[in-house]
Write a sequence for this structure.
């Protein structure tokens, strides 16, 4: 198997993982289930950005991964705070 | 040199993808919020760190080696710090939302934290309101 073919296979596996997370987001019986699935989807996208770096040979995808990870972290904390029942400014 | 780097990167990315798949299978198959949170967060954090490490090793010898190495190391440190913090906050939020760890027997956290009863009235009643009315 060539190196580029292996990387595209890795992208396919990550897409399958993302669809598992989307299944949990759609079917999750409670709101914390959906919040967990959104968190995991954000971390999976960082790995997808790393594989895109290897596929294209350009390094700005890792900058996107860093910014995306920061925004997903803030979103996860906001969702957790909302689940606790507190206002956001506390 | 470059062939050895590519082989090592392929092994790292393969192991990382296996961890990602196991974490997502745990997210789909496990019965409870807390078990799903534990399985998926641990496995996906390690898998993503291994994929980033594979990208770091696989970029050795290319033209953009040093920026890729620096950013990949930064991403690894960032993921290792933020993913457990977010999972901890989500578990605490889920418990305070009133969700019991249903298959478990012992719940000692209930003596420490007052649990709010799940109040989903607004999320249930929201679609029943007429669309044009502003509150």
């Amino acid at each position: 198997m060539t190196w580029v073919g292996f990387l595209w296979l890795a992208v396919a596996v990550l897409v399958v993982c993302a669809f598992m997370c989307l299944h949990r987001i759609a079917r999750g019986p409670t709101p914390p289930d959906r919040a967990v699935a959104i968190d995991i989807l954000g971390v999976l996208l960082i790995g997808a950005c790393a594989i895109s770096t290897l596929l294209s040979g350009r390094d700005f995808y890792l900058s996107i991964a860093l910014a995306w990870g920061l925004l997903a972290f803030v979103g996860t904390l906001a969702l957790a705070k909302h689940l606790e029942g507190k206002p956001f400014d506390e | 040199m470059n062939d050895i780097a590519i082989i090592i990167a392929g092994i790292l990315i393969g192991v990382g993808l296996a961890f990602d798949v196991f974490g997502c299978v745990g997210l789909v198959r496990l019965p409870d919020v807390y078990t799903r949170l534990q399985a998926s967060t641990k496995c996906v954090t390690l898998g993503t760190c291994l994929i980033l490490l594979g990208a770091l090793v696989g970029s050795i010898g290319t033209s953009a080696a040093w920026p890729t190495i620096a950013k990949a190391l930064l991403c690894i440190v960032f993921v290792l710090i933020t993913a457990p913090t977010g999972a901890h906050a989500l578990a605490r939020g889920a418990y305070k939302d009133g969700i019991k760890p249903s298959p478990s027997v012992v719940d000692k956290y209930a003596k420490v934290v007052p649990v709010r009863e799940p109040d989903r009235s607004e999320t249930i009643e929201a679609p029943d309101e007429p669309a044009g009315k502003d509150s």
In short: Chain A has one domain: 3-84. The two ends of chain A are 54 Å apart (CA to CA). The mean pLDDT of chain A is 89.
